[in-house]
UniProtKB/TrEMBL annotation:
Residues 36-217 form the FAD-binding PCMH-type domain. This is 2-hydroxyacid dehydrogenase. InterPro entries: FAD-bd_oxidored_4_C (IPR004113), FAD-bd_PCMH (IPR016166), FAD-bd_PCMH-like_sf (IPR036318), FAD-bd_PCMH_sub1 (IPR016167), FAD-bd_PCMH_sub2 (IPR016169), FAD-linked_Oxase-like_C (IPR016164), FAD-oxidored/transferase_4 (IPR051264), Oxid_FAD_bind_N (IPR006094). Keywords: FAD, Flavoprotein. The keyword Kinase does not apply. GO terms for biological process: respiratory electron transport chain. Its cofactor is FAD. GO terms for molecular function: catalytic activity; FAD binding. The gene is glcD. Belongs to the FAD-binding oxidoreductase/transferase type 4 family.
Amino acid sequence: MTQSLIDRLGARLGPAGLLTEEADMAPFAIDWRRLFPGRPACVVRPASTAEVADVVRLCAEAGAALVPQGGNTGLAGGAVPDGSATQVVLSLARMNAIRRVDPVGLTLTAEAGCVLKLAQDAAEAAGRLLPVSFAAEGSALVGGVIATNAGGINVVRYGMTRGLVLGLEVVLADGSIVDGLRALRKDNAGYDWKQLFIGTEGTLGIVTAAVLRLVPKPRHTATALLAVPDPAAALRLFTLAQEEIGDSIQAFELISGTSLALVETHAGLRSPVGTAGWTVLIEAASSLSGLREAMEGVLGTALEREDALDGVLAESGRQAADLWALREHVTECEARAGKSVKHDVSVPITAIPAFLDEAGRVLEAGAPGTRVNAFGHMGDGNIHYNVLIGPEHASEAINGLVHGVVDRYGGSISAEHGIGQYRVAELARHRHPDEMALARRIKAALDPQGLMNPGKVLARA
């Protein structure tokens, strides 16, 4: 059956659209973190929505599972096949056109295989901003960004990817095409079905194109780094910044002393405000003048109130990039420091100080000898609570300790990275059974054969 299907796929897509040699398929068979190796039956590379639809139809007729893949930059193993050599990886990388940029209507229409950075560049060339931004934007594809509902550094101002999607084109599990590429801000005619395909990691259908919302490009930016006594002071600083510079805040990052020490040790970068305690990185942007003076006022007030111990305001774009480099190197330097258990969690913003305190005490009691590397997007409640461990520590036990505290604060075990195959069992443990039952009913309705990215988000039936 598998060879027959491969022959039919090859006949439809041609040599450029089908990979069957192991060496050619290798980059598609393992995730970016190299935690989930797989073995596909083949890799298909359709170049149009019609080709995607035909691939899905052929696989459905053969009963073969499909694994949609964008830039394969995800952190939860959601875009790689299992090791059975029976699943077909569907790469969207050849569908990379930007179909339209509308600077007046503030929209951009792109195919799923368009690299996010290229979409950002197209928006910038039109004098506009596509505000979703994260470390992998140079290789992540638009379809994957939508399928995972990617977050990033600008969520505090612009929201998650979900809030930037106006319309979608989707191929369903039977190969039918649903075209909802409407560039409308207000459309209340019936179900908002596109939401079913945002953040569901290709388990209900395949996004092939999207209309994305743009925003006016700010003319002024102010970036500051402040040393703060503790997370409670950082929370007060966030409140102050909201009061003084309001919706111009586009990033508010909390960085632990452990994080900066790792960056200093493994990347040779030094913080201008020290690494002893906690640090806050704030970035604000506006089209109106006076932003820098307003940010200076925030820093001055924070220092007077002793919610900040030291601070520096970038004098140039180069200095701002240097401040951001401290934050952007944390993950890389953590990897160099040894094995860690990663937690992409969120709690209510006001609960962050208490969560950090309790989680630290729980780990100290339940997993002595571990070291916490906490950093992330305090402005939207998302903390990357990573735990450096030794050979005597079990990852599952660490997960249980951290996620137990997350539950007590009404949080989520996955703020922006998704579930993939990495957190399937954890999701089942931490989501209410009624929610899981509803998710399975939606899956059964849209993918009755269970062939769309099986084993991701939900356990196999």
